[in-house]
Amino acid sequence: MSDFQQPMLGASSSSMPGGGANAPASPGSPSLRHRNFFLNESNSNKGFADNTVRTSKYRFLPLHPHFFLWRNLFEQFHKAANGYFLLISCLQLIPGLSPTGTFTTLVPLCVVIAATMLKDVFEDLKRHKSDREVNERKVPVWRQGQWVGISWSELAVGDICNIASSEPFPADLLLLHSSGDHGECSIETASLDGETNLKKRYVPQQLVMQPYFALPQNPTSIRGLVECEHPNNRLYTFEGLLDTSVSGMGRPAVPLTADNVLLRGATLRNTNAIIGAVIFTGSETKLMKNSSSAPPVKMSQVDDVTNWQVGYIFAAQIIIVLGCAIASVALSSSALKNWYLGQLTKPSAASFFFSRAGTFLILFNNLIPISLYVTMEMVKVIQTLFINNDLGMYHEETDTAAKCSTSSLNEELGQIEYVFSDKTGTLTQNVMEFLKFTCARYDPQLKRDVAVSYGTGTTEIGRAAAARSGRPLVDDRPDWWYQTKHPFQFYDSRINGGQWGRQDNRAQLEFFFCFLAVCHAVVPERKKHPITGIEEVIYSGASPDESSLVKAARNIGVEFVSRAGTEAIISVRGVEERWNILHTVEFDSTRKRMTVVVETPDGKILVMCKGADTVILDRLRPDPLTAAIRDETVEHLNRFAGEGLRTLVLGMAILSQNEYLAWSKLFMEASNSLVDRAAKISEVASRIEQNLELVGTTAIEDKLQDGVPETIELLSSAGIKVWMLTGDKQETAVNIGFACSLLGDDMGVFTFHNCNSDNIAKVLQAYLTDAKLVVNQDLALVMEGSVLELVLPPAENEIIVELNEEEKAAAAAAKKKPTSKLSGVMAAYGMSDISQTSLRRETELFLSLVTRCRAVICCRVSPLQKAQLVSLVKKNMKTVTLAIGDGANDVSMIQAAHVGVGISGLEGLQAARSADYSIGQFRFLQRLLLVHGRYNYRRISRLILYCFYKNISLYLTQLWFCVFNFCTGQSLYDPWALSMYNVAFSAFPIVITATLDKDVRMERLLSKDQFPELYHDGLHHTLFNTGTFWLFLGNAVFHSLLGFFLSIRILQYFTDFSSGLDLGMTGSGCTAYSAILVIVTVKISLETQSWTVVNIIVVLGSVLLWYAFLGLYGNFFNVAKIKDFALWYGMPSQVLKQPTYWLAVIIIASVAVLRDFLWKVWRHNFNQKLMHVVQEFESIDRPFSRKDVLRYKPHLLPKFQLLKPYEANVKMYSSVFVDEDVTMVPKIAMLSVANTAVKAASTAVSVVERARNDPSKMKQTGPARAVPRSGFFASPGKVRINDILVDELL
């Protein structure tokens, strides 16, 4: 042990960081709270993972537990189907037991297993190659007084590395030295989170002030003890301490944060070199921790139904096997009475029964098709290629194509009923434009500051809102503004062109812009323009909002130039100023604000705080002057929200030197904590985020993506309900809902205000009662996250509350047995628990209400609430859900839904990487669902039904043959003919149909003028359910009866026996087999909707292949003297010469498919579905729309009400509404409303209606008033619910 390390280990607990119980243990030893190790002492740091990365699954050493043969077989035989057929293969190996040969199941099973194994091993070899290339990369490491190049796999915790520009980091490193100014470096994290913008990382400031600590010329001086968190998968947080004390001279421990850590997977940019110490290696790096966490396994509903049907088929198979075995035992006694059978030894009844049961299990084993899962997987892979290569979903601007990450959910895309969508970056472009702001100005008449709004123009959302309300739209921008294209969209004659410096409130304006230029986490990058060659500054930030604010300040005249250590250098109208950043508390979704403590150029210490209005406004000074400007600001914020703008509020406070020193000490203590550091920092920060002075507000436009309104309208027309989940204010969310066609002027809208746990059930019951009365009108629901908390069941809340040891002790002390994790925490801390009965009723009422709504908007919701809501609908409604988002905060929602779709947007690729499918724009969702989803659902449904149909059609003939063979288990067919049935003769036609078949052209689904309602088949699960499954099986039973009995009778009565030739069992079997094969081939031809050359070749080729097999196989016994090849030896040449054979095949196939043909003719012509009507019009081969269907087939209108023009369904009545503040409605007034509802119901009127054209009915009549249907908001805080009568609130 060196002299440097000895005092560390011998120090008292009071001098250690963390102190006492948290004192560091020896390096590498386990610790409950943290781990510790020495820098530059890799030999002393034992017990940590090595830096070898292995992403491969298999090894190639036979004695290794992960040897590819053992592990792959173990994985494959975890599938029930493979295990089942392995059992059959083993039974066939028992001598005298198998009636279908010895290897007829084992050989196809081995082919399937080998093909899957080869695919898996081939993919794993690519992983081995990639791992080897990564592990053998070289990195300079300081060892034995010099830089030595070693491979990445040799790195150890504590090693000192030297990383050059553009090189990736070999492990998670602690930044100790940077060639950049003031210890800064830039990194790119695209491989980690998909974000291409550069991020800054910093050497801890205490080390920057110790220049001798980390010098590239002499890294030997780098010494210290690192105490940090255990390895985890949190990319954006890190908690640790670095103790650099020497020879017992106490130095304060250096707190370490995520800003000081360089993660493996990131790359060094714009910096010549850095020196870092290895913190985490190999499997313990944050990159590998995230890679190892697999997303939840999802199964489509079609797969789920299929598994149930397989279970039913297996149960039926067991019943058949047992029945045949019992019959065989019962009939076996008569065999002993026949003298020509010789002297037979009678076996015991039990052994004979089990022997016969095994025989019949082998005989009927293919009632469950062995090729089903392989065929499904093959077809789904091809469907995946279609999705990935669809140019209709290619976004050229970002060079982003659609990507399918899993093929198991392809058919699920055709059954989506609920779409849960994020707003920012999903419905909008996430390209922020600074449009308006407010700032204080002194009013001499009022003798106080007033809030003044700056900025002109409006947004497309604002224009739509103005059009709905009928108010004039004022745009103060000059004409010349629209004649040129401006990169900076803000315009105000009082601000632009430096005019703000001539205003009487120029001091307030200057500070406002300085606030924008200083309070942020944006990184400036200097790049040369590729065409002009002029150097320009590009601002990169974790949030596009921050970047847009800094750009706005620069365009107005206050430019953020760079950072120099802790200083932010800005230029105010050409004059450089340096603002010293003392402390920064980053923004997060819980705090909803960012705070920076700065020292101004004139020595003042300011607290700059910006964040959501709900957070900042509550922290303003409680004095009358502030209250007045606050109210004016709220009015401006409401106006901005009405235009769909994203708003932030800026606040400021001044600290004295003593106040700052006292607070700084608390902040450093929180920063040095290794336990709950983030929570402690947040609590300390809130102490100075009080009594703020209002600086102003900002309003940013986030434009809708192209095609969003059209896409939502189309999805709605297809029967898909879209929910928007956002963190925006209600006014903003509602106006965006109107702009993107999620809401309509003629919709009835439920909203919730002033709801609490006492009245939420009554409000929900009242709304549900009214929703049941409404006809011919779409409904929508708007609610906030606070209301959502009241209706989520306890089971949903459990996922966010974990009882730790302290909480368990508190619950025990309270002597209350917690019924759940949530109620346990409530009991522990004296919180009022919510009864299970009450909460369950509220949840049921909520679910019943939303099922009657076409659209739902949830605003002010957290990422966790999004996931909870999706999970609630998924678990409690018999429907299929889809969640779509673009950011890391949407990942939990995406993984909670049946199908997750990620958008490759400006917030990185976290959502796209976690999703099942990824697309470039929201508008591509219509093609993904209505085209690919619908086609895939139809094709997979037909594939599964047909695979069971064709197997049962053939293998049930073995059951009918048992009637004639004394239940001996004798097979009617040759063993290898049975094996080739699923592998060759009947396999290819269904693969082509399930891959290429189209019932209608895709353009019939992609326009409201066409027929998006064709998507309803998937919504209602009409093509694949238990009913359709057993109908197909019933048809298979019918065809097997015809194929067996007709073949026997035709051969019996029409064969010429004068020559002495008897076709016998083998001839009958060949005839029945041929007839069944022709039947199932014609059946798939009837099921095919669109024929191509490929279909024709494959269908004819399958039949020709069968006869080629007969010609060759009949003489194969001459080549290989194996008994399995002897059954049909010489038979085909005799049978195929008989006219009776061909007569039987033709008659049986014709009679069998006649029923199917007549059914389809009747269905297509006399009992048409919408699909049949569209197909009829498509056969004319000329353009048409839904209006042509009404014009040429008016008799179909009563059946297809969905084709009726929407306006014909809506009667123009005035609206009945009740003021939203339900707690203020008197009970007497509500009784009056209830009486009105009873009277309306007694006269068979669904809703209390007052005709628009009757002015006498437009006057107010008490609490229920008739109003015109113009506008959404009656007044601030009062919402009118169109066509909704609330008849019971209290």
Describe the structure.
There is one protein chain. The chain is an alpha+beta fold and about 1300 residues long. About 40% of the residues lie in helices and about 15% in strands. The strands form nine sheets. A nine-stranded mixed β-sheet has the order 14-33-32-31-15-27-30-29-28, with helices on both faces. A hairpin with a 6-residue loop joins strand 18 and strand 19. Helix 2 crosses helix 4, helix 8 (about 300-335) runs parallel beside helix 30 (about 925-960) and helix 34 (about 1025-1055) runs antiparallel to helix 38. The longest helix has about 40 residues, at about 925-960. The radius of gyration is 38 Å and the shape is globular. The chain starts with a helix and ends in an 11-residue tail after the last strand. Residues about 1-30, about 795-840 and about 1205-1290 have low confidence and may be disordered. GO terms for molecular function: ATP binding; ATP hydrolysis activity; ATPase-coupled intramembrane lipid transporter activity; magnesium ion binding. Belongs to the cation transport ATPase (P-type) (TC 3.A.3) family. Type IV subfamily.
Keywords:
nucleotide-binding, translocase, ATPase_P-typ_cyto_dom_N, disordered N terminus, disordered C terminus, 1290 residues, membrane, globular, 9-stranded mixed sheet, 9-stranded antiparallel sheet, EC 7.6.2.1, alpha+beta
